[in-house]
Design goal:
The protein is an alpha/beta fold. The chain has a single domain, classed as Glutamate synthase, alpha subunit, C-terminal domain (Pectate Lyase C-like, 3 Solenoid), CATH 2.160.20. The chain is 12% helix and 29% strand. An eleven-stranded mixed beta sheet has the order 1-2-3-4-5-6-7-8-9-11-10, covered by helices on one side. α1 links the parallel β1 and β2.
Length: 243
């Protein structure tokens, strides 16, 4: 494995060097706000980052596995198409913005607008698992994919205000208690039994394998599945206005 000290390079130099490196596994220490790391990568490299990663980590990526021992700032997995990002800490706002595929695992909390504009197409089904809580507007305008919020590592409310606002596809899974007043009014709410949990069991098992919890602990609280009541919940807003 190749090891790089991020403190030895400015942001642009670091990105240029990473683009040219052929090694399949790279570790970067002393990361401190460097932006656009692994942005647009189309490969199966494994990248290990130690520190606080700057905006747009793994944006538009297609294939790499990125592990962060620390925190991520805004836009982690922005419009990610494939691959995996694992954050052993927390992330800022708009994590998973427009995700089209791949998986994002976060041990602690996520900021505002988690997974907004997420979408799925055929075999492309993006997944976000948050171990802690999520800020306001989680799943806003969500068109597809899966968001799971566990509330395992947080003393905050599970979700912020306006969760699922404008949502018209996909599903959000909430573990344990949540403030129902924070949900958008058009959402269908289902408390899951064993059959329902089977839909997300593999994702929970991956979370456990990365962060060291147990399935017994995670499944000890009830899960609620949020989805939309009908396929086109907002069609009536446009009827008569679109020719």
């Amino acid at each position: 494995m190749t090891i790089i000290n991020a403190a030895d390079y400015d942001n642009y130099e670091l990105l240029q060097m990473l683009e040219k490196m052929p090694q399949p596994e790279i570790q970067i220490s002393h990361v401190n706000g460097q932006r656009y790391i692994a942005c647009g990568w189309k490969n199966n490299k494994r990248l290990i980052l130690q520190g606080t990663v700057g905006n747009n980590l793994g944006a538009f990526a297609e294939g790499p596995q990125i592990v962060v021992f620390g925190n991520g700032q805004e836009g982690v997995a922005n419009t990610m198409n494939d691959g995996q990002i694992i954050v052993h800490g927390r992330v800022g706002d708009i994590a998973g913005y427009g995700m089209r595929g791949g998986k994002l695992f976060i041990k602690e909390n996520a900021g505002y607008r988690l997974g907004i504009h997420m979408k799925a197409y055929q075999e492309k089904k993006p997944v976000i698992v948050v171990g802690g809580s999520a800020g306001a507007f989680a799943g806003e305008y969500m068109a597809g994919g899966t968001i799971i919020i566990l509330g395992m590592n947080s003393n905050q409310a599970l979700i912020g205000s306006y969760c699922g606002t404008g949502m018209y596809g996909g599903a959000i899974y909430l573990r344990g208690e949540y403030p129902s007043r924070n949900l958008a009014p058009n959402l269908k709410k289902e408390v899951l039994g064993a059959d329902g949990l089977a839909e997300i069991k593999d994702y929970l098992a991956e979370y456990v394998s990365f962060f060291g919890d147990t399935m017994e602990n995670i499944t000890s609280a009830p899960f609620t599945r949020l989805s939309v009541e009908k396929k086109r919940p907002f069609a009536h807003l446009y009827t008569g206005f679109v020719s």
